[in-house]
Design brief:
- The protein is an alpha/beta fold.
- It has 2 domains: 70-101; 114-342, Spore Coat Polysaccharide Biosynthesis Protein SpsA, Chain A.
- Helices cover 47% and strands 20% of the residues.
- It has 9 helices and 9 strands.
- The chain has helices at 2-58, 66-95, 127-136, 141-151, 168-180, 196-210, 227-235, 288-296, 307-313; strands spanning 114-121, 153-161, 183-190, 213-220, 223-225, 243-252, 274-287, 321-324, 340-342.
- The strands form 2 sheets. The protein has a 7-stranded mixed sheet, sandwiched between helices. Strands 5-9 form a two-stranded antiparallel sheet.
- Helix 6 crosses helix 8 (288-296) and helix 6 packs across helix 9.
- The longest helix is centred in the N-terminal third of the chain and has 57 residues, at 2-58.
- Keywords: Glycosyltransferase, Golgi apparatus, Manganese, Membrane, Signal-anchor, Transferase, Transmembrane, Transmembrane helix.
- The chain crosses the membrane at residues 21-40.
- Pfam families: DUF4094, Galactosyl_T.
- Residues 17-94 form the DUF4094 domain.
Amino acid sequence: MRSRGSQNRLSGDSFGSRVSALMLAMIATMATVYVAGRLWQDAESRAYFIEELEKRTGQGQSAVSVDDTLKVTACREQQKKLSVLEMELAAARQEGFVPKRLPGNHGKHPTKKELLVVGVMTTFGRKKNQEAIRKAWMPTGTPMRKLVDKKGIIVRFVIGRSANRGDSLDKEIETESSLTNDFIILDNQVEAPEEKANKIKSFFIYAVSNWDAEFYAKVNDDVYVNLDALGGVLTSHLDKPRVYIGCMKSGQVFSEPTHKWHEPDWWKFGDGKSYFRHASGEVYVISKALVQFISINRFILRTYAHDDVSIGSWFIGLDVEHLDETKFCCSSRWSPGAICAAV
């Protein structure tokens, strides 16, 4: 009896095992079918999406979402801002807004601060003007060094490079400069009429990098200057940190393309078509802080058709004292107390 009961139990267990195995096999088969079906559906979906993408691409439509586009645009803007800040920081380190010694000092003694650096804007083919200025008011050789030592005034002709760099024009200026030692040759500035404002900007950047002075002046090469009178005027303004001195003027903005003084950006000056107040271009002086401002912001300062308007525009939004000095108004004849005369 016990043996038969044991056999029945064994038979029952075997039957249960076979049923369990069968159920597991059925479940595995169903799972396989389900997974295969999902994979087939995914494959169909991918094929559909690829087909749609190719259609959109062929039609010139972007496959990137609006959100993704905005993210990319914002990232690019941040990169641009970072690049600008890096350039401004590098310029600030170079141009005096952080501690710096000027070239040639080597950290031995404090560099002497001069009163004035004068840049006489000249160009190719103006040798007669240059010689006339040397004879009239711009000393050379030993007298030039004495002018620096006794009065703290540095005077140099300023010129850019020929558009055909290294041609006879460049070589002629290089030869003359080696003999007279009174030229600033701006290597990265093309000498051209339409580049006047950029040339003046380049001069200020060069000057503040090489000389520590209270003031910096721009003069045309058809103007005679009384350096003693100029030095006297500037000495009275040493207490002003940001000053822009000149013969202040305004004037009509000409929108006609055929006009001699045409201003392409005439519409920016309003319906009245009148320039803001600015110093006449024959001669003007700005303090060191303003030259440093120009140097640091060199990449973003806008220029206009006329160099004197361009310079004046850079100071419109700044806390700058504009000094309308009649002694800077150059007439064709010397007048009592004047610092300049136009030729």
